[in-house]
């Protein structure tokens, strides 16, 4: 263990001495990796952790569903799926259903073999677009004509599939309704009117009970509460729905700056999540502890910011993406083990989709500050510093690792423990002149990222100003 610790600290200290950024250094969070998807456009992402696949649909202008492994590698395409748009896994995870807009059909894909096993015709001129399983059926939002969004269902439980069209909806939907469901409440179906990027309309958020086989209205939202709805996510317990809306409460003079949550019992307000101007994509972690939101301005000079927040809206981490990089609507998802955040981004034209994988995204960033004399004789010096966490106070002592690098190598020094508020100090007497670099490392834990900081003290070759006794030049005994 001591050998591994020494090796780790030598790398950190050497990087600091040579001006190389430490791999443990704190700062703005960034994408861990990016992978091009080889697609022109993007509509939806589905994570199938059980079979270790990611599915990407292209929407109206593409054909085929792109498939990768959970790291974005081993890419392939399931062919002959024209205008593949909305996707949904069956409750048992064995089938991926894909809405084929122009074909007026829903395809069934075997999630193990990645082949199409059946295609269910919905009817010519129906344009099925979005899918969600609920109440034992597969519901779909459909409609080819602006101003005539409709709801239908596909029942696959019998010997022959049964299709129902024109199911009751509360009000007029401009586009095919966006649907959301959750196994935690299998009879709940959330229905909303997703806007185009350039033409905002009322979100018409509505909750239905489908336990009887026919949607029964539970609650509806005033038409001006959410205008320009781009994405929606049910919390893992299905108690709330979180919306990304361009405008809130009828005010279209200023863009919204947060995603808003509502109770699925009555669609009453239930909190908010700061996201920046023009809220768009939203998802939640499967363990129910985190909400992830993003904003999108669709400008070549701007970019999206992804924010990971606790249930109370407090910030855990944020990712500022490169210029002209925008998170797509329905472009966020989290792996089943809550360890990887997936984000699909495009440029300002909405093309060239890229997958970004962000690991340890639920860990708060940490940072260290250090202070020491810039120069000294070979006498005892004191190094002081402070450990801090992003958007959270340090409230208990933490143990930090300390190393020193001088002209004879790197040496592990005794660890130092912070006070309850994160401050700390330690002393050392340099044995050799020249640059003495002290590196303090916070190793991180389950809830915090590691970080390190270095400070260099220029030590005189003499012990004091009066004795001017030269250093012996002998390396320390190992």
Explain what this protein looks like in three dimensions:
The protein is mainly beta and 478 residues long. It folds into 2 domains: 2-26 and 365-459, Sandwich (Immunoglobulin-like); 33-359, 7 Propeller (Methylamine Dehydrogenase, Chain H). It is built from 1 helix and 36 strands. The chain has one helix spanning 2-17, and strands at 33-36, 44-48, 53-57, 63-68, 76-82, 84-89, 95-100, 105-110, 115-121, 130-134, 137-142, 150-155, 162-164, 178-180, 188-192, 206-209, 216-220, 226-234, 240-248, 258-263, 269-274, 279-284, 290-295, 305-310, 315-320, 326-334, 340-346, 354-359, 366-371, 375-376, 381-389, 399-406, 409-417, 423-428, 434-442, 451-459. Strands 30-36-35-32-33 form a 5-stranded mixed beta sheet. A 4-stranded antiparallel beta sheet has the order 1-28-27-26, with no helix packed on it. The longest helix has 16 residues, at 2-17. The radius of gyration is 28 Å and the shape is elongated. It starts with a helix and ends in a 19-residue tail after the last strand. Keywords: Signal. InterPro entries: Host-pathogen_enzymatic-act, Quino_amine_DH_bsu, WD40/YVTN_repeat-like_dom_sf. Residues 1-31 form the signal peptide. This is DNA-binding beta-propeller fold protein YncE.
């Amino acid at each position: 263990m001591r050998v591994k610790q020494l090796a780790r600290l030598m790398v950190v200290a050497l990087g600091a001495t040579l001006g190389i950024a430490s791999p443990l250094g704190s700062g703005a969070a960034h994408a861990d990796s990016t992978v091009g998807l080889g697609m022109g456009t993007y509509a939806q992402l589905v994570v199938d952790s059980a079979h270790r696949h990611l599915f990407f649909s292209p929407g109206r202008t593409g054909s085929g569903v792109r498939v990768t492994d959970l790291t974005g590698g081993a890419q392939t395409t399931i062919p002959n799926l024209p205008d593949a748009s909305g996707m949904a896994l069956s409750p048992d995870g064995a089938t991926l259903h894909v809405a084929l807009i122009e074909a007026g059909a829903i395809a069934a894909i075997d999630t193990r073999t990645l082949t199409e096993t059946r295609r269910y015709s919905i009817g010519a001129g129906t344009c099925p677009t979005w899918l969600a399983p609920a109440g034992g059926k597969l519901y779909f939002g459909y409609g080819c004509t602006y101003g005539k969004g409709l709801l239908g269902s596909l029942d696959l439980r019998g010997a022959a599939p049964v299709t129902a069209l024109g199911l009751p909806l509360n009000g007029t939907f401009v586009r095919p309704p966006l649907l959301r469901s959750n196994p935690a409440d299998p009879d709940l179906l959330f229905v909303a009117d997703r806007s185009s990027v350039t033409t905002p309309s009322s979100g018409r958020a509505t909750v239905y009970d489908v336990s009887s086989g026919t949607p029964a209205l539970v609650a509806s939202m005033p038409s001006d509460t959410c205008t320009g709805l781009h994405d929606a996510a049910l919390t893992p317990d299905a108690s709330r729905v979180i919306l990304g809306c361009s405008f809130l409460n009828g005010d279209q003079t200023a863009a919204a700056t947060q995603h808003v949550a509502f109770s699925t019992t009555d669609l009453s307000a239930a909190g908010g999540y700061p996201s920046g101007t023009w809220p768009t994509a939203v998802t939640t972690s499967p363990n129910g502890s985190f909400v992830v939101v993003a904003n999108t301005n669709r400008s070549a000079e701007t970019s999206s910011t992804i924010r990971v927040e606790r249930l109370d809206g407090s910030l855990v981490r944020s990712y500022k993406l490169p210029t002209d990089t925008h998170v797509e609507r329905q472009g966020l998802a989290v792996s089943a083990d809550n360890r990887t955040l997936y984000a699909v981004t495009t440029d300002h034209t909405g093309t060239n989709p890229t997958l970004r994988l962000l690991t340890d995204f639920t860990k708060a960033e940490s940072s260290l500050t250090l202070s020491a004399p810039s120069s000294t004789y070979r006498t005892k010096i004191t190094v002081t510093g402070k450990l801090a966490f992003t958007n959270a106070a340090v409230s208990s002592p933490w143990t930090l690792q300390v190393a020193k690098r001088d002209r004879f190598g790197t040496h592990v020094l005794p660890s130092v423990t912070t006070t309850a508020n994160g401050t700390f100090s330690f002393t050392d007497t340099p044995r050799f002149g020249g640059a003495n670099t002290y590196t303090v490392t916070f190793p991180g834990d389950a809830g915090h990222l590691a970080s390190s900081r270095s400070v260099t003290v220029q030590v005189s070759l003499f012990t004091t100003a009066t004795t001017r006794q030269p250093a012996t030049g002998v390396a320390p005994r190992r």
